[in-house]
Amino acid sequence: MSKRKIGCSLLILFLVVGLSIFITRKEENMVTTVFSSFQERMSVGRKKLALKEDTAIGSLLIPKIHLQKKLYAVEDKRNTISQNVTILKESNYPDQEGSTLYLAAHSGNAKNSYFEKLDQLTIGDFVEIHFKKNVYTYQIDQIESQVKTGKITVPISAKKQLILTTCHPKEKDKQLVLVAYIQKETDS
């Protein structure tokens, strides 16, 4: 098993045993820490939903890396990193003023490694979120490697933000964090 697979497997193991996900948002002297328990999200996700049709709430489109994936509500049982691109509990949907949407997915070479090419994105690239008959176009502004600790640090902004995160494909003890800001909102 490669070192990268072992690193990603260890990260998943942390999440499964209920380690908290910490997301720290900074702005000058102001620090806001948002805590969430993976176990809480899993217990909500275990609720049986009577689904007769696809209930995706939107989709993620990253043209540069040819990625298009459906997004499911935080409480939906399909909103798991093992099945899809995951919306983290700390997220605000893009139709809310000053929203921050956190998306996480696996990198690597497995079937569910939806963010395997995330490291090919560069500052200035565009990402779209299709949500409630609107298209939210974000432009990548920051790309960072952060030490894998179970938390990520991102700036607080009055502008709508999209945060994409995954295991760093080249540095097993790091995670890749991309910060994008809203550029345009249009009706679809």
State the CATH architecture. Beta Barrel
- What's the number of helices? 2
- The total of beta strands comes to 11
SSE pattern: HEEHEEEEEEEEE
Q: Structural class, judged by helices and strands?
A: mainly beta
User: What is the CATH fold-level name?
Assistant: Sortase, Chain: A
Quote the average pLDDT.
80
Low-confidence stretches: 13-52
Shape: globular
Helix content: 10-25%
Measured by DSSP, the beta-strand proportion falls in 35-45%
Q: Which strand order does the major sheet show?
A: 4-3-7-8-11-10-6-5
Gyration radius from CA atoms, angstroms:
16 Å
Structural notes for this entry:
This protein has two helices and eleven strands. The strands form two sheets. It has an eight-stranded mixed beta sheet with strand order 4-3-7-8-11-10-6-5. A three-stranded mixed beta sheet has the order 2-1-9. It is globular and about 45 Å long. 12% of the residues lie in helices and 42% in strands. Mean pLDDT is 80; it is low at 13-52. The protein has 188 residues and is mainly beta.
Structure in a nutshell:
With 188 residues, the protein is mainly beta. Helices cover 12% and strands 42% of the residues.
